[in-house]
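Tokens for Methyl-accepting chemotaxis protein. Go.
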Amino acid sequence: MKFGAEEVANGVETTKSVSENFTEIEKTFKEIESVVLEVFNASNIMEEKAYTTSNSIKEVAGVTEENSSATEEVTAANEEQSASMQQIAETTSKLDELIENLNETIKKFKI
């Protein structure tokens, strides 16, 4: 009988130990679940940030393209102005020659 009581006591101890181990395993699973949930949430946040960053980059690219177009327009306008200024300079030079010729002609008619 003593042997049976010892076996029962050992069985109770083993059951208690197994129960404690299962409790510890359950606690560990809950901790793992918590960590997985944190990683999942962090992943979602990173995905949102990546989307926001991508949109910002697209906006910057659009603004850059607009600035490039505006720069090309300004360059074209400057070239047109430069050509106009050159024409004005040439016309002014021709007018100076014409005035000089007219002055020479007028001097011939002076009494």
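Residues 2-109 form the longest helix (108 residues).
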